[in-house]
Design brief:
Helices cover 39% and strands 15% of the residues. It is globular and about 50 Å long. The protein is an alpha/beta fold. The chain has one domain: Divalent-metal-dependent TIM barrel enzymes (TIM Barrel, Alpha-Beta Barrel), CATH 3.20.20. Strands 1-2-3-4-5-6-7-8 form an eight-stranded parallel β-barrel, surrounded by five helices. Belongs to the hyi family. It is an enzyme of class 5 (isomerase).
């Protein structure tokens, strides 16, 4: 198992995402994943990542103003040009930090129509072509409605149907076990069934989104075994809220028989 720190959730004692690169390295991580680094230039992010001497696995699409709840426009008709601009900008950042994956966020919508699904699929098809040229993998993630009400994509079946129709090696599924459990459960069978389409995995305990070994619904010793048994060998993002400090909370990794 290879674990990378999610800098949106971990090492938040440093207010700047730039400082978190170094803190992740000091804690023993070899790699990180991040949201889009709003407020920082491409050069600033590249310098912070390189100074820390750490790998970047994934970066989220530029979603717009997250303080206003904006989580992308991929499924919003009439904003196709905005989507394309944000995608191109994110690809530039990904190349700068040598991230090989981009999480394409769908957006939040009050009322979903067939037009939203058509726009979403059309934009993802465009993205797959652009990502192919850049040799970057795009991933889409169903997000549960408890954590992010009104998030457009909260259905694994629909996500996989779209991935199948677009049929590109540059578009796969982000399978966050935290969301999987709350959307459809049946974790053992779903890991097996979804694995052919998976491009990235994230984990956190349910329902409080803390470390995997904290009290909750998921037996992560078993789940991590299932991921390995079904052939997943790539990075696993630790997208959880540390219960008592990022570094202190990492003891679960050794307790489960793994290392950073």
């Amino acid at each position: 198992m290879k674990f990378c720190a999610n800098l949106a959730f971990m090492f938040t004692e440093a207010t700047s995402i730039l400082e978190r690169y170094a803190l992740a390295k000091e804690a023993g991580f070899k790699a990180v994943e991040t949201g889009f680094p709003f407020g920082f230039t491409l050069e600033q992010v590249k310098q912070a990542k390189e100074a820390a001497g750490i790998e970047q696995v994934l970066i989220n699409l530029n979603t717009g103003d997250v303080s206003k709840g904006e989580l992308g426009v991929t499924a919003v008709p009439g904003k196709e040009n905005e989507f394309k601009e944000k995608l191109k900008m994110t690809i530039d950042y990904a190349k700068a930090v040598n991230a090989r994956k981009i999480h394409i966020m769908a957006g939040k919508l009050d009322n979903v129509t067939s037009q939203n699904w058509e726009t979403y699929e059309r934009n993802l098809k465009y993205a797959a072509g652009l990502l192919n040229e850049a040799n970057i993998l795009g991933v889409i993630e169903p997000i549960n409605q408890h954590s992010v009400p009104k998030y457009f994509l909260s259905d694994y079946g629909k996500a996989i149907d779209i991935i199948k129709r677009i049929d590109s090696p540059n578009l796969k599924l982000m399978m966050d076990i935290f969301h999987l459990q709350q959307i459809c459960g049946d974790v053992t069978h779903n890991i097996k069934n979804f694995m052919p389409y998976v491009g990235h995995v994230q984990i956190a305990q349910v329902p409080n989104r803390n470390e995997p070994d904290t009290p909750g619904e998921i037996n992560y010793k078993y789940v991590l075994e299932q991921l390995a048994n079904n052939g997943y060998k790539d990075w696993i993002g630790l997208e959880y809220k540390p219960a008592n400090g990022s570094k202190a909370g990492l003891k679960w990794i050794n307790n489960y028989g793994f290392s950073l």
